[in-house]
Specification:
The complex is a heterodimer of chains A (399) and B (376). With 399 residues, chain A is α+β, with helices and mostly antiparallel strands. Chain A has helices at 7-10, 26-29, 39-58, 77-91, 94-97, 132-146, 166-183, 238-246, 264-273, 287-299, 314-323, 342-353, and strands spanning 103-106, 112-120, 126-127, 130-131, 150-161, 186-195, 203-213, 229-232, 279-282, 302-306, 336-340, 362-368, 375-378, 384-386. Chain A has 4 domains: 7-58, no CATH class; 63-92, no CATH class; 100-213, 2-Layer Sandwich (60s Ribosomal Protein L30, Chain: A), CATH 3.30.1330.10; 221-386, PurM-like C-terminal domain (Phosphoribosyl-aminoimidazole Synthetase, Chain A, domain 2). Chain A is built from 12 helices and 14 strands. In chain A, helix 9 crosses helix 12. The longest helix of chain A has 20 residues, at 39-58. The radius of gyration of chain A is 22 Å and the shape is globular. The relative contact order of chain A is 0.13. In chain B, 35% of the residues lie in helices and 17% in strands. Chain B contains 14 helices and 13 strands. Chain B has a 5-stranded parallel sheet with strand order 2-1-7-8-9. In chain B, strands 4-3-5-6 form a 4-stranded parallel sheet, sandwiched between helices. In chain B, helix 1 (10-27) runs parallel beside helix 10 (228-243), helix 2 runs parallel beside helix 14 and helix 6 packs across helix 11. The chains are: A alpha+beta (399), B alpha/beta (376).
């Protein structure tokens, strides 16, 4: 296939072949009608269309919108386009361009630190299994852990709405303190701002964190090789479904708790058992599907997931069925996806299963040479389908 | 998951596929597979989600029909919805997957970003609840769907009247399943051997209304459920009819569908709605008596009467071939803009918006087998 695996084209700004959808002419895209008859010609023509689409998918997403909408924050293609066109464009530097969960920075001593930041705006602020306070610590601890770092120091900034209850704030901060203690990190600096009523919804929290990366640890999607195994540290979708239900507008009730948890210790055990681990990513917004798509894209490999091996709680599956959502795309706050060499897969699995946060860990897929950049799900039924990047917020289906 | 896993059992699926392969080999001619249309978008979704197309033998081909309620809404109706949503004081409520459907000028998500109060609801009753909680605002519900969702809109209107809610209205776009089915059967370029009948719609209207399909047009129809084994079994039933020389309406979805449908739902539909003389379908054009509006008795709840709706008809974009896709005349990938100018994030046609739309399903799930794989 032409052009698909030419790295020069994957990020081609101003690439002449890129056709702006706004000025597209059907003729420019149409496959020659001459070869439209006959069975073999038809399958060739279909292949040509698929190739064209693959080329198209690999072009960096363009930001065409003039106003921010919810899709820009959902972690899918619209988010990627926004980050790319606005933030990376303005701040451009090598470290930022890796677009990892955080930055890896070299110190003059030769040591490396990981540095990461995240904001928390979850609604409702308290949900079964946790609160915005737990998320604010766990999220940053986990981002650092996924880079192989040992999280140590955290900053916390609060934007608070005029009239917010101090008792509730105290509760949230107590959760943060508990979470920090459990994760073995300390909050060392902070900031507080109060904004007018209506200018924010209760309280928003931003945390940043720093941790040392042990020598020899070097996790990067680009280290992923065909033949590697894909693991997940436990049952997926709990957090997203718990929050959705806690919002109360679904008229659904189920005792599903968020899985919010600090993953630094689990990662420590995993890396000790499987030192060849290529890549780790916590499957937060966008879920396991988004992580797999990102690593398929960055490593230019295929990812094949096996539906029958995906660990999903029955209740989460049921809620997703009712809502028409795929648990693969639902957010987690205490689950990671790991890619390890095949020969270390069983050791990695055993190490995770031996930890209380990885009891339900499973090997869920394989890294394949083909098709590059694509995540495929082998369905339990024996069929297969593509698991693509999420487009906007997952919108529930009508019927 | 109880009551779901039973209908996804791989061993049972293999048996069904074996029978399909045996039956279809007696019917299909070389290069001419047996073609069935699944009318309902829910079926399309199941077929792609479980990869059913690639467990079927090449002698059976599935054509994806017009039964996605989101996909058949014409652009002008979306523009009207946006116009209502932008009126001062209005809270406009909609099902999630209608929010990204493009009108002639943007979609509801964009209208929301521009300041309109657009809220996603999961049921029309949620919209009514919003109306009761905001008595100083006008709350409008964007009613979309076949006979499947129409009863819940009807119940909501009845409840609104009963509770004396005066700030609630319905922008009604409910459609009916039989007229487009007829339109497809009348289409001269149609080549189909049978229909997988819509399951959800039939829980309301029953199986009786489909008798004209074998009666007048000589095509078998089997109403099917939404799990993978339901689909496979309905294909077996269609193939058996063809090999045995029968042509009738059969019911695979017996756990939910009866011949007469749901009399209570039909009764409130008749009470609250009346047929529109004609309604425009995306890609299919105007079809007479194919949609519902609120009957005069409930005119107070009709957003089209309460608000000044522009009612401008917007022609489908020239490049868009949704109509041919909906009729099964071309496959999604045969559309000139498929996957390039028209993708799930920037859909030109409605078939690309909802995950039930033939194009979106094909784009999201189905490209796989067709992606050229380099030999190792």
């Amino acid at each position: 296939m032409t052009g698909v695996d030419d790295p020069g084209r994957t990020v081609g700004v101003g690439d002449a072949e890129f056709v702006n959808p706004e000025v597209i002419s059907p003729e420019a895209l149409a496959i020659s009608e001459a070869d439209s008859d006959g069975g073999a010609a038809e399958s060739n023509r279909e292949e040509a269309v698929m190739e064209r689409i693959e080329r198209w998918r690999r072009h960096r997403p363009r930001l065409k919108d003039e106003l921010i909408n919810s899709a820009h924050g959902a972690g899918g293609k619209a988010s990627a386009a926004l980050v790319d066109a606005v933030f990376v464009e303005a701040f451009r530097n090598e470290t930022l361009e890796t677009m990892a969960d955080g930055a890896v920075l070299g110190l003059p001593s030769g040591e490396r630190i990981a540095f990461s930041t995240d904001s928390y705006v979850v609604k409702p602020r308290r949900f079964p299994g946790g609160s915005i306070g737990h998320l604010a610590i766990h999220g940053t601890v986990n981002d650092l852990s996924m880079m192989g770092a040992a999280p140590s120091w955290i900053s916390a900034a609060f934007i608070i709405e005029d009239g917010f209850s101090i008792a509730e704030l105290r509760g949230i901060v107590a959760d943060m303190a508990d979470a920090a203690r459990e994760a073995g990190v300390i909050v060392v600096t902070g900031d507080t701002k109060v904004v007018d009523r209506g200018a924010c919804d209760g309280v928003y929290i931003t945390t940043a964190g720093v941790g040392l990366i042990p020598p020899g640890v070097n996790l990067d999607a680009r280290h992923i090789r065909p033949g590697d195994k894909v693991l997940v540290s436990g049952r997926i979708g709990d957090h997203g479904v718990a929050v959705l239900i806690a919002r109360g507008d679904l008229a659904l009730e189920a005792p599903i708790e968020s899985d919010t948890a600090p993953l630094n210790e689990l990662v420590e055990h995993l890396l000790a058992a499987a030192p060849g681990t290529r890549f780790l990513r916590d499957a937060t917004r966008g879920g396991v599907a988004t992580v797999c798509n990102e690593m398929a894209r960055d490593a230019e490999v295929g990812v094949t997931l096996h539906e029958a091996t995906l660990p999903v709680r029955n209740m989460v599956n049921g809620a997703c069925e009712i809502l028409g959502i795929d648990p693969l795309y639902v957010a987690n706050e205490g689950k990671l996806v790991a890619v390890v060499p095949a020969e270390e897969a069983n050791a990695a699995l055993a190490a995770m299963q031996a930890h209380r946060l990885g009891v339900d860990a499973a090997i869920i897929g394989d890294i394949t040479p083909e098709p590059p950049g694509i995540v495929v799900l082998r369905t339990a039924l024996g069929g297969s389908r593509i698991v693509d990047m999420l487009v906007g917020d997952p919108l529930p289906r009508i019927c | 998951m109880k009551f779901v896993d039973e209908y996804r059992d791989p061993a049972a699926a293999r048996l069904a596929v074996a029978e399909i392969t045996a039956l279809a080999s007696r019917l299909a001619k070389p290069g001419q597979p047996v073609k069935f249309m699944e009318v309902c978008g829910g079926h399309t979704h199941t077929i792609y989600k479980h990869g059913i197309e690639n467990v079927l033998p090449p002698t059976v081909e599935l054509i994806h029909g017009p039964g996605c309620p989101v996909c058949v809404i014409p652009m002008g109706r979306v523009d009207d919805a946006i116009a209502v949503a932008k009126k001062p004081g209005v809270i406009f409520t909609s099902f999630g997957d209608m929010m990204r459907v493009p009108g002639g000028s943007g979609n509801l998500l964009e209208a929301k970003a521009q300041g309109a109060d657009v809220r996603m609801v999961y049921s029309p009753l949620d919209a009514l609840r919003i109306a009761e909680a905001n008595p100083d605002r006008e709350v409008v519900f964007f009613a979309v769907g076949f006979e499947t969702t129409a009863p819940s809109t009807a119940v909501t209107v009845l409840k609104a009247r009963e509770r004396g809610v005066t700030n609630f209205s319905v922008y009604c776009n409910h459609v009916t399943i039989v007229p487009p089915l007829k339109a497809i059967l009348e289409s001269p370029d149609l080549r189909l051997d049978g229909f997988i009948g819509p399951g959800h719609v039939s829980t309301v209207i029953g199986n009786r209304p489909y008798r004209f399909v074998p009666g007048t047009y000589g095509k078998p129809l089997v109403t099917a459920g939404f799990e993978p084994l339901d689909i496979l079994q309905s294909i077996v039933m269609l193939l058996r009819q063809l090999t045995e020389g029968r042509c009738e309406v059969e019911n695979q979805y017996t756990r939910a569908v009866s011949d007469g449908g749901n009399p209570k739902a039909l009764e409130i539909l008749a009470q609250v709605f009346e047929l529109r003389p004609h309604f425009e379908w995306r890609g299919l054009g105007f079809i007479s008596q194919s949609a519902l509006k609120l009957s005069p008795e409930f005119a107070a709840f009709d957003a089209e009467i309460r608000f000044d709706v522009p009612g401008v008809r917007v022609a489908d974009p020239k490049a868009c071939q949704c109509g041919e896709v909906l009729k099964g005349v071309i496959k999604p990938w045969e559309c000139k803009v498929f996957g390039t100018a028209c993708t799930p994030e920037t859909p030109i046609g409605t078939c690309m918006v909802s995950s039930e739309g033939a194009c979106a399903a094909y784009y999201n799930y189905g490209r796989l087998t067709k992606i050229p794989v380099k030999s190792a």
